[in-house]
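Hi there,

I know you've been waiting on this one. I reran it after we fixed the sequence typo, so this is the corrected version. Both the input and the resulting structure follow.
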Amino acid sequence: MEKNFEISMLLDTYGSLLTERQRQMLQMHFDEDMSLAEIAELTEISRQGVRDALVRGEQQLRQYELALGVLERYNLQNNIILELISLVKTDADKNQLLERLEKLRIITEGTDGI
């Protein structure tokens, strides 16, 4: 996953767990593609202060994902759903469909799926 896209996804998933200021700076940088200088001017802190806040925020988002795995589970579910759609379109046999559905059920329940 491209870094900016990955951070944006993590921010959408876990952003509410960050401080308001961290969340805003991460959104400005990764979602709005603003430079450190632009963010520093708007927030009235140094570029180094912005950089430090971004690094800490990224680390926190990655720690949340490591602990909770919400985004990973979403990606697994999405991939299985795409496989199911493909299998249905190609008129796959019933056993293949049932295997994929069972895998999706396990991931959705959060037991043994990851």
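Quick highlight: The mean pLDDT is 89.

Best,
R. S.
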